[in-house]
Amino acid sequence: xxxxxxxxxxxxxxxxxxxxxxxxxxxxxxxxxxxxxxxxxxxxxxxxxxxxxxxxxxxxxxxxxxxxxxxxxxxxxxxxxxxxxxxxxxxxxxxxxxxxxxxxxxxxxxxxxxxxxxxxxxxxxxxxxxxxxxxxxxxxxxxxxxxxxxxxxxxxxxxxxxxxxxxxxxxxxxxxxxxxxxxxxxxxxxxxxxxxxxxxxxxxxxxxxxxxxxxxxxxxxxxxxxxxxxxxxxxxxxxxxxxxxxxxxxxxxxxxxxxxxxxxxxxxxxxxxxxxxxxxxxxxxxxxxxxxxxxxxxxxxxxxxxxxxxxxxxxxxxxxxxxxxxxxxxxxxxxxxxxxxxxxxxxxxxxxxxxxxxxxxxxxxxxxxxxxxxxxxxxxxxxxxxxxxxxxxxxxx
Length: 397
Fold this sequence. Notes:
By secondary structure, this protein is mostly helical. It has 14 helices and no strands. Helix 4 runs parallel beside helix 7, helix 5 crosses helix 6 (182-192) and helix 8 (236-258) runs antiparallel to helix 9 (264-293). The chain starts with 8 loop residues before the first helix and ends in a 13-residue tail after the last helix.
């Protein structure tokens, strides 16, 4: 018998529909109960959690603000270090930061006890000293950073870098001897008078050691990135002069130990004179290299700006200290310091004229067409066909 024609079929269909309706009703009821439970228990927990988060944000807000301005300061300072043009706000900001750091160090660190404390002069001298220390010390980093970013030292004279290492070796020994060795200090006072003040300060020693380390890093970069070959090889004349200087540094102590009339102070004065002579010599190859290329690309202008600031303040501090103590033996007994600052300032003015007036960076296309292949220096295709450095957007600072 066909069930579809059975009179019970409608009843069966009705029963099935009722069961399905009851099942849907039960499901809806369970869902509604669950929502009520969530509204009654979970929602208040969410509210409490939001309040706790708000309180936590308020608690960490000062830290986040400090973190924000710290990152902003690091960004600005980094922008100054990687600036290749040396114009506009990076120069003003960079020099301002150096002066500020010098003043802070002058306040924190003790000054020379021999200087008069009247009218706060001891603090002034200390601030000037550490400002020139910061300027001269930081001046090495832009060149190191530029070499690292370009992965090349083309445009940087190997003669300059090699002589720089030798010169700062002499200057480091000179400052360490006058500042730390009592026997040499006694020889100094025996020669210049018992009340003669030694004008070598702690910042002089710190700068000399730091400068020797950074000059060595820069010289190492030449060998690492380009190798001491071709345009990156030192000239034969400089190699011969360097060998003479190194021999003098090594043989000098033996002469002092064997010849009674020669004192350790004489040896230090000899090293100081070598440093001054090297300072006179080391800039000349870079000046010639810039002239041949008609460009200063690859030669960091910040090296020059900071060196100029350091050299000027170094001489200012030396003269002011001698005037304050009314004792000019600080200059006559430390001519090395005065000569180094003066020579550096003169050559820095030459480099600034080359960078800003004679060979401004907007003429890089001109320098690209001027190859020095005939002289074996700086092939233009290697120097100028590299990826340009990313520009710094002022709006991000």
